[in-house]
Write a structure and sequence with these properties.
This protein is of the alpha+beta class. Helices cover 38% and strands 20% of the residues. The strands form 5 sheets. Strands 5-4-3-6-2-1-7-8 form an 8-stranded mixed sheet. Strands 9-10-13-11-12 form a 5-stranded mixed sheet, sandwiched between helices. Strand 4 and strand 5 form a beta hairpin. Helix 10 runs parallel beside helix 12. Bound molecules: 3-[3-(1H-pyrrolo[2,3-b]pyridin-5-yl)phenyl]propanoic acid. 3-[3-(1H-pyrrolo[2,3-b]pyridin-5-yl)phenyl]propanoic acid binds next to helix 5. 3-[3-(1H-pyrrolo[2,3-b]pyridin-5-yl)phenyl]propanoic acid (0RA) binds next to helix 5.
């Protein structure tokens, strides 16, 4: 290839070869990060982001996604339509150029802000290269155009198909190449829903929809308020200090700053910073500017209005952000994403821009809403006081050596192995089941911590109250990770923390309270996949000759009975269809376990603790935002919501699947 460059005689078609898509197929990971689930879904983002850009620029009003039965996906917008005129450099139409030449997309950037992330924005041509088939349809001036590709190469050149009554727009259909995406080429409906929901929040007034032809599921989003609606939704299930949401949208130089915020009465801070519609979980300059301005404006207001006395210290940023829900969205022409995972915005000017907009408009907001301002300041003052009390309480407990893990809780029956990777901590409901677990366990790797009665609901508890609760202190001590600002995951003494409670409403409640504690105060432990729910059997089926079977669900019990009947029949036994199923199956007894306490140590070991037999459910947080909403609903004020959840879903432990 370098020879061709040196020959000095290349024309347009050769340029295309040089900038062609072969490198993308050779090293897909370099262009889309992974060739697994994430990579496949990244393709959707690459295509749909362009349509969203067209909406941000003010030319499209809707973006519709259709997951096809045959493995493809179609993204349609009602924007201007990708231009179809000849591109001077390639001799191809602009549409074909955008889809076959690497990095060509940017050159066609429309008016307004080009909000492609700059990082992932490698464009539609990459998707084309990694698809067995791609079909692009464009409507301009009432004419429908169409072009078709296979693995990035044109197989049906651009052709005018005919007239249509759609005015303008772009529609792209593609099929991920299974020889590239070896793990999976299945699109996940939930991923698309989540992506579109966020894009709709971040682009006010855009209508988005997804339709799944495989399952007939469909969903649509439209948020008139944009990030205001986002904040409102993040606070659902929480008591807000005022319905009035602070909102500002201002251009600064060639950038745009948009902020929405609202306080709730919890202790959790939830600030979501975005740059060009990309979430930046590690923050960056926009977040720094926001925090600095918020802290300064509130302290200034508090001083000016004598809410903060002369001799009192300034409120800290942490105090001020307790119970704060905020979304910060900046748009800028050339975003720099930094850090190991590129999750942090680096552009230095954004700090100033956000600070400037926030300072000016949030000051107005406080002046105009003195009742809200007073509540916000008082809340921060309370937080400051509580923080001092919590620190004193913790220091006191640490002085007594109670949290350091050297001094293990009296109730803990530890295991003998000190290799955390193989160690398990069973948190067991009740002393009697705790006793059976202790006798039945493998004491080399399994430790037992019995908990008595109800666990404190930590959704609304501050550190000082938590540290006054013996069960919680035992748990923290036993785990060896500390709490609050002394939390350190490297101290974790067991890589599996297994919650073992009765299979009834109370047991589910205790499990939920424990999960709340882990999610709110030891999130890293949950994220590390260390939390599990043990699933004790629901039934014991007994037959003559000391034969027995355990069933872990009603369905499993019914299947077992059918299998036993079938087996007897094929062994030639006479089966009377008028008999009860139990009798037909040759069973003497079906026992329903009401609690762990009904099992003796051997049974508990056999059914719920022995690694080869037991059923464990790993607790996952795939989407922290949704999990947060669920815990707020669950553990907040609304008792009816909580009851129905506990009865139906707590044992499933997949926060992502729940509807909130
Ligand atoms: C640049 C110029 C024009 C349209 C677009 C980009 C465009 C790109 C995409 C990608 C997906 N949907 C899109 N819609 C529009 C048209 C400029 C003009 O018509 O004058």
């Amino acid at each position: 290839m370098s020879n061709q460059i040196n020959s000095g005689s290349y024309d347009g078609s050769q340029i295309q070869v040089l900038e062609g898509l072969e490198p993308v197929r050779k090293r897909p990971g370099m262009y889309i990060g992974s060739t697994g689930y994430d990579g496949v879904h990244h393709l959707i983002k690459e295509i749909a982001d362009n349509s969203i850009d067209e909406a941000i620029a003010g030319f499209a009003t809707r973006v519709d996604v259709k997951i096809l039965k045959d493995g493809g996906i179609t993204v349609t917008d009602d924007g201007r339509g990708i231009p179809v005129d000849k591109h001077p450099k390639t001799g191809l139409s602009a549409l074909e150029t955008v889809l076959t030449v690497l990095h060509a997309g940017g050159k066609f950037g429309g008016g307004g802000y080009k909000v492609s992330s700059g990082l992932h924005g490698v464009g539609s041509s990459v998707v084309n290269a990694l698809s067995t088939k791609m079909i692009a349809e464009v409507v301009r001036d009432g004419q429908l155009y169409r072009v078709e590709f296979e693995r990035g190469k044109i197989v049906q050149p651009l052709k005018k198909i005919g007239k249509t009554n759609r005015v303008t727009g772009t529609s792209i259909t593609f099929y991920p190449d299974p020889t590239i995406f070896k793990e999976t080429v299945d699109f996940d409906y939930k991923w698309v829903v989540n992506y579109l929901r966020h894009q709709s929040y971040l682009t006010k007034g855009v209508f988005t929809s997804v339709q799944d032809e495989r399952t007939q599921e469909r969903q649509a989003f439209y948020f008139e308020g944009g990030i205001r609606s986002y904040v409102k939704n993040l606070n659902i299930g929480k008591d807000v200090i005022s319905e009035n949401i602070f909102y500002v949208e201002r251009p600064v130089e060639d950038c745009m700053v948009e902020i929405a915020l609202q306080y709730n009465d919890t202790y959790t801070e939830m600030v979501k910073p975005f740059a060009n519609n990309v979430l930046t979980p590690d923050g960056g300059t926009h977040l720094v500017g926001f925090k600095a301005a918020l802290t300064r404006v509130i302290n200034d207001y508090a001083r000016k209005n004598n809410l903060l006395k002369e001799k009192e210290d300034n409120l800290t940023g942490d105090d001020i952000r307790e119970g704060l829900t905020a979304v910060i969205l900046v748009k800028l022409p050339d975003p720099q994403f930094e850090g190991q995972t590129k999750n942090k915005l680096g552009n230095p000017e954004m700090r100033r821009y956000v600070d400037q907009v926030m300072s000016e408009y949030f000051s107005y907001y406080l002046e105009e809403n003195p009742a809200i301002a007073k509540k916000v300041v008082n809340k921060a003052l309370l937080a400051a006081r509580a923080r001092r009390a919590a620190r004193a309480a913790r220091d006191n407990i640490i002085r007594k050596g109670a949290l350091d893990g050297l001094n293990l809780p009296g109730k803990l029956a530890d295991c003998s192995s000190k290799d955390a990777k193989e160690c398990e901590l069973y948190i067991v409901e009740g002393d009697s089941a705790g006793g059976s677990a202790k006798s039945g366990r493998d004491s080399r790797t399994q430790a037992i911590l019995p908990l008595r009665g109800k666990v404190l609901n930590t959704e609304r508890a501050r550190l000082d109250r938590m540290l006054a609760n013996n069960e919680i202190v035992s748990l923290i001590k036993g785990m060896g990770v500390g709490i609050g600002d002394t939390f350190d995951i490297s101290g974790l003494r067991y890589h599996r923390i297994i919650i073992m409670t009765d299979a009834d409403v109370d047991g589910s409640h205790i499990a939920t309270l424990l999960m709340t504690f882990f999610f709110r105060h030891m999130k890293e432990v949950v994220e590390g996949g260390h939390i599990y729910l043990a699933k004790p059997p629901l039934y014991l089926l007994k037959a003559t000759g000391n034969k027995k079977w355990y069933a872990y669900s009603d369905e499993e019990k019914d299947n077992m009975i059918s299998e036993l009947i079938e087996k007897r029949r094929s062994n030639g036994a006479k089966i009377n269809p008028d008999d009860s199923p139990m009798k037909q199956a040759g069973l003497n007894d079906i026992q329903r376990y009401k609690g762990l306490g009904e099992m003796d140590a051997d049974q508990l070991w056999e059914t719920t603790m022995k690694p080869e037999n037991r059923v464990l459910i790993q607790v996952k947080v795939e989407d922290a935002e949704r999990a947060d909403a669920i815990f707020s609903k669950l553990m907040g004020d609304e008792v009816s919501l909580r009851k129905s959840f506990i009865q139906t879903r707590a044992k499933d432990a997949n926060f992502d699947e729940l509807d909130v």
